[in-house]
Amino acid sequence: MGKKYFKRHNFRKSQAALEFLTTYAWAFLVILIMIGALAYFGILNPSKILPDRCTFGTEISCIDFRVGYGTTGSDGTFSLRLKNSLGEPIVIPLVQSDMVISTESSTAFTCTLNSITGGAITGPFTWSTGSVIDISFNNCNVAAVGFIKGDKAKVLVSIKYYLAKTSSVYLRQVAGEVFTTVT
C-alpha cells in the first residue's frame, strides 16, 4: 500500500467526521430555534403551570387568599384567611404597622389595612387559639408592582405578635408567602 491509499483513506475519514458534525450542528440549531419560538409565545412559562399556594410558619395556617384588581382597575385588593395554630392566644400589637406586605418588585407594594374580622385595626388585636380571621387590604398598587390579571403574583407577608400571657417585650415574627393568580 502506497502513500496515495493513506491520503485518500484519511481524507474520507475527515470528510465523514465533518459531515457528521455538520448534521448535528443543523439539528442543534433547529432545536434552539424551536425553543426560542416556544419561549417567545409564552408556552414555556413555568409559573403558569405552578399551583397557587400560601405558606406560613407553623404558628399560623393559611386557609384562603386572593390578590386582585379593584373595581376601577387602579386600586387593588389583597385578602387572607388565617388560623391561629399556635395552641394559645396571641396578640398583634398595632395591627397596621405589624402586618407588613411586600413583593419582590423594586416598587414598594403598598396597601391599606381595611378590616380584620372580630377586631379593631388601630390597636392591639387578641387572636384566640384555633380561631380563623379574615384580613383584607385595599387601595393596593397592584398595577404599579407589575401584577397582571391572569398571571401569577408573589406577595410576602410578615406578622409580628406576642403570646397573650406575656408582654410586647417578647415580640415574635412569622413570615409567609402567597403565590396566586391575580384576578
Keywords, separated by commas or semicolons:
6-stranded antiparallel sheet, 183 residues, 4-stranded antiparallel sheet, Immunoglobulin-like, single chain, alpha+beta
Overview of the molecule:
Helix content is 23%, strand content 37%. By secondary structure, it is α+β, with helices and mostly antiparallel strands. The chain folds into 2 domains: 42 residues; 134 residues, Immunoglobulin-like (Sandwich), CATH 2.60.40.10. The strands form 2 sheets. Strands 1, 4, 5, 7, 9 and 10 form a 6-stranded antiparallel β-sheet that branches. It has a 4-stranded antiparallel β-sheet with strand order 2-3-8-6, with no helix packed on it. The mean pLDDT is 87.
Characterize this entry briefly.
With 183 residues, this protein is α+β, with helices and mostly antiparallel strands. Helices cover 23% and strands 37% of the residues. The strands form two sheets. Strands 1, 4, 5, 7, 9 and 10 form a six-stranded antiparallel beta sheet that branches. The protein has a four-stranded antiparallel beta sheet with strand order 2-3-8-6, with no helix packed on it.
Topology diagram in text:
Blueprint: H1 3-40, E1 53-55, E2 60-69, E3 76-84, E4 90-92, H2 95-98, E5 99-102, E6 112-116, E7 125-127, E8 132-140, E9 152-163, E10 172-181
Antiparallel strand pairs: 1-10, 2-3, 3-8, 4-7, 4-9, 5-9, 6-8, 9-10
